[in-house]
Amino acid sequence: MLVQILMDKTKLMPGRIMVLLVVSGTVLGFLGLYEPFAEWAGAGATVPLLGFGNTLWKGISRAMSEDGALGVFKGGFTASAVGISGALIFGYLGSVIFKPKMKS
Fold it and tell me: What average pLDDT score do residues 65-77 get?
């Protein structure tokens, strides 16, 4: 609902709103506010872009505790690799099965 209000009432482009959501999920994870929210909201909080930001934060936090400063660069990739790979694979399979065409 808040994203729809942002889209309707501001001149923010959808890409900027998506980045805002990922960063918000990361900040909420850092502050420790995302986990109680995710428990309350369930998959409605863990699947969208807020959840992706929180996943990045968890991965970076874990990797920093194991690898130190190198974890800043490594942790986000490690934590989100399965989700990103799944999106790419299923997106490709969908394009093969349904044969999309360009709009003219």
Answer: 88
Q: How many CA atoms lie within 13 A of 69 on its CB side?
A: 0
- Residues 18, 89: Cα–Cα separation, whole Å: 21
CB 14 within 8 A of CB 25: no
Q: What is the DSSP secondary-structure string of 49-80?
A: HHHHHHHHHHHHHHHHHHHGGGHHHHHHHHHH
Dihedral sign computed on CA atoms, order 87, 21, 56, 48? negative
Q: What's the pLDDT tens digit per position in 28-51? A: 999 999 889 888 888 777 778 888
Cβ burial of 52 (10 Å; 0-12, 13-18, 19+) is: buried
Q: Looking at per-residue confidence, does 102 or 56 come out higher? A: 56
